[in-house]
Amino acid sequence: MKRAVVLLSGGLDSTTTLAVAKAEGFELYALSFDYGQRHKTELDLARGNAEKFAAKKHLIINFDLREIGGSALTSDIEVPKSGVSNKDQPLTPNPQPSIPVTYVPARNTIFLSFALAWAETLEAGDIFIGANAVDYSGYPDCRPEYIQAFEYMANLATKISVEGKVKFKIHTPLIRLTKAEIIRMGTSLGVDYSFTWSCYDPIPGPQSPTPCMKCDSCMLRAKGFREAGIKDPLGVD
Amino acid sequence: MKRAVVLLSGGLDSTTTLAVAKAEGFELYALSFDYGQRHKTELDLARGNAEKFAAKKHLIINFDLREIGGSALTSDIEVPKSGVSNKDQPLTPNPQPSIPVTYVPARNTIFLSFALAWAETLEAGDIFIGANAVDYSGYPDCRPEYIQAFEYMANLATKISVEGKVKFKIHTPLIRLTKAEIIRMGTSLGVDYSFTWSCYDPIPGPQSPTPCMKCDSCMLRAKGFREAGIKDPLGVD
């Protein structure tokens, strides 16, 4: 059984990616990060999904990107809200003219680097990441050209690739899909989206937090479910 | 004053690299990692050298590569000793036919990824790493082709590069130098090699550890000092 390292944030995309890797027959090694993100709900959900999809191992690596800063997801910068109150209005998932402040500097590069290290130790040539370049926030490290460049670098970086034992492939099964297509695919593969988290700025609650339904990520999620014709189990309406 | 992020392990090469970046007129942001390495002496020395070369900031990021394993420097794998007892014998710095077990999976990729994140936050386009591909242990992530691939990827990965504000350059001032040339250059730039650490497998002592003088890294260092005609202040002979 071929091994794959799957980056698993606990979000909708990465959980769907885990299901895809499972369906493709890989033995799963799920990798998450506790990096000082504001919303840790996702890590609990990642644990649950790693178990549900029978990951052989789930590793959570700790480091603190707050020391580096530069993002609304790890520092005191405010998460932008487009303030869309009428869900029938056309939604523009990325209304900012440039990459929004929720971008975390070099995050996917850091995540993929740890995935590469673990993959090398496991002698696994396959790394999965739920990057998406359609219904996304315009983050540069979600685009195909970035992923290709990482893959090329990875094959020059490691002992097992240079010695010819393994050729690394970065799998991005969602990269060209709309959010609606991702949700339909995940649903067909058994993903329960109750147990995925998207909101960048959750509202604390006595039992569990509630999605704000105003940040980019909530808006993209809501648009996806609406277009897929599926009710979001986490949706507030 | 242009800012540069300098990877600083506390070893001979990275400390020399810090001195080079200083001499080139950069404002220094030194970056070290506490990643579960066996020999932490180097982190204390990194702190001292960051101060000596007046780094604006020295950041030490913590994570645990022991969870990933796969290296003699982070796990229980034995550090190989070539057992060279006669210093007049010709030394072969990398006698292994392949990359030795002291290689740490994807280490430079992880280090450079954090450097990239910090550089982006600082809007610094210049990243320095003391990679060397002459008197080295054959690690794949020290070679020029790897560094070039990382630089290419970095410029696709980040908001400030994609928006055209900064073009990242990975500086490797030592990459084509022999160890002797590195030592001569560092000496001329004010590096005090008493405060640099190379040994992979130090012998614990009551006050401070002693280099083993048998591992690859000790052998490369000893050869460098001998060829430079300079006495190693840490040398045991």
Entry summary:
Two copies of one chain form a homodimer. Chain A has 237 residues and is an alpha/beta fold.
Notes on the structure:
Two copies of one chain form a homodimer. Chain A has one domain: Rossmann fold (3-Layer(aba) Sandwich), CATH 3.40.50. Helix content of chain A is 34%, strand content 11%. The first copy, chain A, has seven helices and five strands; from the N terminus they run βαβαβαβααβαα. A five-stranded parallel sheet of chain A has the order 3-2-1-4-5, with helices on both faces. The first copy, chain A, starts with a strand and ends in a 9-residue tail after the last helix. Mean pLDDT of chain A is 90; it is low at 83-97. Chains A and B meet through strand 3, helix 3, helix 4 and helix 5 of A and strand 3, helix 3, helix 4 and helix 5 of B.
Please render the helix and strand layout as text.
Two copies of one chain form a homodimer.
Chain A: E1 3-7, H1 12-23, E2 27-34, H2 41-52, E3 57-62, H3 107-122, E4 126-128, H4 144-157, H5 159-162, E5 169-171, H6 179-188, H7 216-228
Parallel strand pairs in A: 1-2, 1-4, 2-3, 4-5
